[in-house]
Design goal:
- The structure is a single chain.
- The protein is built from 14 helices and 13 strands.
- Helix 4 runs parallel beside helix 5.
- The protein starts with 7 loop residues before the first strand and ends with a helix.
Length: about 375
């Protein structure tokens, strides 16, 4: 078992907006259980400015040097997707656990290669899927497990967001080789991970996608119909073309309809619990809405992650649990590209979509990686 300091020594890799706006506040919300001891960025001046802004004692432009000198317990990887796998492997090999931003890697093949660097008892790598960790999602997951509302029957999982042309002027965005895909990979992945964490194992996906309005290599919209092992059917939409933005999930059970409508995060007030006609008058709490109200957040996931790592246990959103949504996305892209239904057993090393979400051999653009990686 890997030993962890008290407080946990944390390093940040990638001093961009997500580290500033989400990860540093999440660490500070841990009530002294974690402290950031170093920041790394390919632009040393940016790393130094980030360190000065947050009172971090050390800044680097070399991940390897930081790992040798600082020996962190946990490294938070906030780089663009093309740099994820290299950074994760380096940290795991140095004995540091990793919490990596989405998407986990650019392909299922990369995910499996990175997982080979883990060791039993740690270090482990887990991924940022913070929407699993709000109290309402946890309550609904338990109700599905116990059958309190009956088996899920029908679902909706829509990520309807808006990104204008200027958004894609960042060199790595909208390209298969550097972002791994469009809104299916980089945006809707959060809602789809929440859907899968609730609904369990999927058995078939039929999908379509298009590039309708943005000058990108990838799709800017995708749609899918998904079947689950329990028989439920769910519609999925991922869009970056929707001016009225919303993240919307709906699950219909024999006893109730449970809905979540939010944008980038939720609390209990964003959930609606509607009784079936034969239970008219039942309150949300009677249907299963939780009394405690923990919003979905990076802070909530980090709290659970630190608890697991201290116990030497594999955290949520890692291993097979973290892989599920990436394999699902590969299947969605394959179905959308070929017009055929895809099942989980098809996502194997013999399948080109296992190696690349586009189904084409990956040719890495090293100039982009040097500008955005570690």
């Amino acid at each position: 078992m890997t030993a962890y300091s008290q407080p946990a020594r944390v390093a940040i890799v990638g001093a961009g907006n997500i580290a500033d706006g989400r990860h540093m506040p999440a660490v500070q919300a841990q009530n002294g259980e974690a402290t950031v001891i170093a920041v790394v960025d390919v632009d040393l001046r940016r790393a130094e400015a980030f360190a000065a802004r947050w009172g971090i004692p050390a800044s680097y432009d070399s991940l390897d040097r930081m790992l040798r000198e600082q020996h962190p317990d946990l490294v938070i990887v906030c780089t663009p997707p093309i740099a994820h796998s290299t950074a994760i492997a380096a940290c795991l090999d140095a004995g540091a656990s990793v919490w990596c931003e989405k998407p986990p890697t650019l392909s299922v093949a990369e995910y499996d290669a990175v997982a080979a660097h883990e060791r039993e008892g740690g270090p482990y790598v887990s991924y940022v899927f913070q929407h699993r960790f709000g109290s309402a999602a946890r309550a609904l997951r338990e109700h599905i497990r116990s059958g309190r509302l009956g088996a899920p029957l029908v679902g909706v999982c829509h990520t309807l967001w808006y990104r204008d042309d200027a958004y894609f002027e960042v060199p790595w965005r909208g390209k298969w080789e550097t972002e791994g895909g469009g809104p299916t990979m980089g945006h809707g992945i959060h809602q789809m991970d929440l859907m899968l964490s609730l609904m369990g194992e999927w058995t078939e996906v039929r999908a379509a996608m298009g590039t309708l309005a943005r000058d990108v290599e990838t799709e800017d919209v995708s749609m899918a119909m998904v079947r689950f092992a329990g028989g439920a059917m769910v519609s999925v939409i991922n869009s970056l073309l929707s001016p009225r933005e919303t993240s919307y999930l709906r699950f219909d059970f024999p006893e109730a309809t449970v809905e979540l409508s939010h944008l980038y995060g939720y609390d209990n007030s964003d959930w609606t619990w509607t009784p079936a006609p034969h239970r008219v008058g039942a309150t949300a709490v009677e249907l299963g809405a939780p009394l405690d109200d923990e919003p979905s957040s990076h802070a909530a996931q980090l709290r659970a992650l630190l608890r697991s790592l201290r116990a030497g246990e594999r955290p949520e959103a890692s291993g097979g649990d973290g892989r599920r949504v990436l394999a699902f996305i590969a299947a969605l892209y394959e179905s959308a590209s070929t017009g055929r239904p895809v099942t989980p057993d098809m996502i194997t090393p013999a399948n080109p979509y296992y190696h690349s979400m586009s189904g084409r051999p990956a040719v890495r653009d090293n100039t982009v990686k040097e500008k955005t990686g570690v």
